[in-house]
What we know:
Oligomer: single chain
Shape: flat
Amino acid sequence: MVWLIGAGILLSIGLLVDWLYTRIGIDDVDPNENARNVSVSERVYIESHMHNIRQNHDNTGGF
């Protein structure tokens, strides 16, 4: 029952953010523009994390 309430809260937050984006007029979110604003340390951290996730998935077949 608690997970159902949590899922409802997350869904509500997502709908609220989507509504705010459309109300403000942010229709085009460009991933390339966002990538230009990421620091080198953040990029290295994310790439390392993604590499480790892929390795864990390949070695264990899942979680």
